[in-house]
Amino acid sequence: xxxxxxxxxxxxxxxxxxxxxxxxxxxxxxxxxxxxxxxxxxxxxxxxxxxxxxxxxxxxxxxxxxxxxxxxxxxxxxxxxxxxxxxxxxxxxxxxxxxxxxxxxxxxxxxxxxxxxxxxxxxxxxxxxxxxxxxxxxxxxxxxxxxxxxxxxxxxxxxxxxxxxxxxxxxxxxxxxxxxxxxxxxxxxxxxxxxxxxxxxxxxxxxxxxxxxxxxxxxxxxxxxxxxxxxxxxxxxxxxxxxxxxxxxxxxxxxxxxxxxxxxxxxxxxxxxxxxxxxxxxxxxxxxxxxxxxxxxxxxxxxxxxxxxxxxxxxxxxxxxxxxxxxxxxxxxxxxxxxxxxxxxxxxxxxxxxxxxxxxxxxxxxxxxxxxxxxxxxxxxxxxxxxxxxxxxxxxxxxxxxxxxxxxxxxxxxxxxxxxxxxxxxxxxxxxxxxxxxxxxxxxxxxxxxxxxxxxxxxxxxxxxxxxxxxxxxxxxxxxxxxxxxxxxxxxxxxxxxxxxx
Length: 502
Description:
The chain has helices spanning 124-130, 326-330; strands spanning 8-10, 22-26, 37-41, 57-62, 76-77, 85-90, 97-102, 119-121, 137-142, 155-157, 162-166, 171-176, 184-185, 193-194, 205-207, 212-215, 221-226, 243-244, 249-250, 264-266, 271-276, 286-293, 300-306, 323-324, 337-344, 349-357, 373-375, 380-381, 395-399, 404-411, 431-436, 447-450, 459-460, 474-478, 483-484, 488-489, 493-497. By secondary structure, the chain is mainly beta.
C-alpha cells in the first residue's frame, strides 16, 4: 500500500478481541490475475481458550481488476452486517472504478493464490440480488465522468450510507446506498461537483456537523463542498447545494506536489487541518501545517522545518498527516498536534524530525511549533542522490488500562537507530517507531523495528491487556519495499504489538 494508504480493521470495538476480527489490505499489484485485496483473521496468538486464535490465516483473497488498474488506496468497511462488505477504488486503468465487495470466507483464496469473485456485476441491482445468496459478490461502478483516480480513497458516511471520492481532474463524486441499499453514483441535482479542475483531489472527509465535504488538491488548495441540507456551515460560491464552498485555503504548495494527504476534520471544535511539504518560496519554503475553521474563511500556519528538497532531482519530501495526543481530546489547549517534518542543518544536511504544535484557549493552533524537536533519521546531504527520508502519517492510541499515550510514525530510510541498521557514520534503513507522549514531548524513541522502505499508514485494533489476550493491542501496516516475509516480495502485511513491537 502507498505511504498515505491505511489497512482497514474489523471490529471497531477497542475493548475486545476475537478470533473473527480481521484486517484487510489493498495491494497495488498489476496484472489480470494479481491479488487485489486480502484479509487475515486469527490475529491474536494465545487467545482464551489457549491456542484457539493461532494464525494469521487468510480470510479471503480476491483478484478484482476490471480495467487493468490497481487497488492502491485505503479500503472502507461496512458496519451493520459485521464487516461483510468492503468498498475500495481501482485506479490507473484509465477511469476510476468503485468496487463494493461482499466477501465469502469459503471461497476467497489465499494471498499467493487469489480467486475471482463468484458473481460480478456492473449495476447496483445486480449486486443487491447477488447478496441474497451466500456467495462472494463484486460490484464495479466506473466513474460517470470517465475520469481517473489514482490517489483519492473513498470516505464512507455510516449514518447515511453515502460514499464520497475525488478524481484526478478535480471532481468530487457521491455514491448512495453503498452497503445497505442499491449502490449507484449520483449524477443529477448538482453531482458530481467540480472542485478545482484540473487538479487531482486528495481523499475527502465528510463532516456531519457542518454538512460539508473537505478535500485538498495537487495545487495546494483546501476546499469544501456544501452538501444538502442547506443548513450547516459556510455558503455556496455560486448556486445552491450541493455546491462548491465560498471560501478556500491556499497553502502555496504547488511546487511540492500540493496537498497529498486527506484533511483532518475536528467536528467537535469546528476546525480543519492539512499538511504540506512546502508552503512556497514566498513563505520561505517551509514544511507546514495549516488550520482553518470549517468555514475556511481564515487560516493559521505552523511550520515544521524547512522543506526538504533534493538539489539534484528537485523533488520535495511530502509531509503526511500528524496525530493529536490524548490531552487534545479533553481540551485542545491542553494538548498537542505531533507532526513529522524536516530538519536542515547549516551544512546542508537533511533529516526527518518529530515536532509538536500547541493550541490557545479557543482551540486555535499556535502560529509556530513549540520548539521541541526529536530527530528520527540520520542526516544526509541535499547533494546526495537520495533525498532525506519521508515519514508515514502519524497514528495515536491512548490505553486507558495503563494510562499510556503512544504515537506511531515510520521513516522510509536513513534511520538513526542501530536496530534499524544505523551506525555512527552510516544511515540505516526504513524503521517504524513508537513514542510515549504520556508525560510530554518524548526525549527518545520508545520502541522500534526495521521495516524495509518504511510503512504505509498505521491502524490500531484495540487496547485489550496482554494478560487477558496475548498478542492483542496491536498495529497493522504494509512495508513499502521488498523484504523477507518470509521470502522476498514487493510488500508485506505486518502486525506488531503496541507496547513492545512483538
